[in-house]
Design brief:
Blueprint: H1 3-23, H2 32-51, H3 55-77
Helix pairs in contact: 1-2, 2-3
């Protein structure tokens, strides 16, 4: 397995765990752990996509990470709106 595969796998696992925990009401979407997992997972996937020069996913995951970061800032300030 190549380095980019390992990095991508870690990122996807983080995103899926966050999704499943939210889906089964174990982790609210407006919580710091959920938004942090989304940020780390998306950034990791974006970096792995960059390593293999798959730019459509670099763009997708970068945007995902930026929105997750913005949400993380709002949640940590207590201004998430929920």
């Amino acid at each position: 397995m190549k380095e980019s595969d390992i990095i991508a796998t870690v990122g996807v696992v983080i995103l899926l765990i966050a999704f499943l925990l939210n889906l089964y009401k174990k982790l609210p979407a407006n919580s710091i752990p959920y938004t942090l997992m989304n940020f780390i997972g998306a950034a990791t996937c974006g970096y792995s996509s960059y390593l293999i020069k798959f730019y459509p996913f670099v763009i997708l995951e970068t945007i995902w990470a930026l929105f997750a970061l913005a949400s993380l800032i709002k949640v940590s300030r207590g201004t998430s709106g929920n």
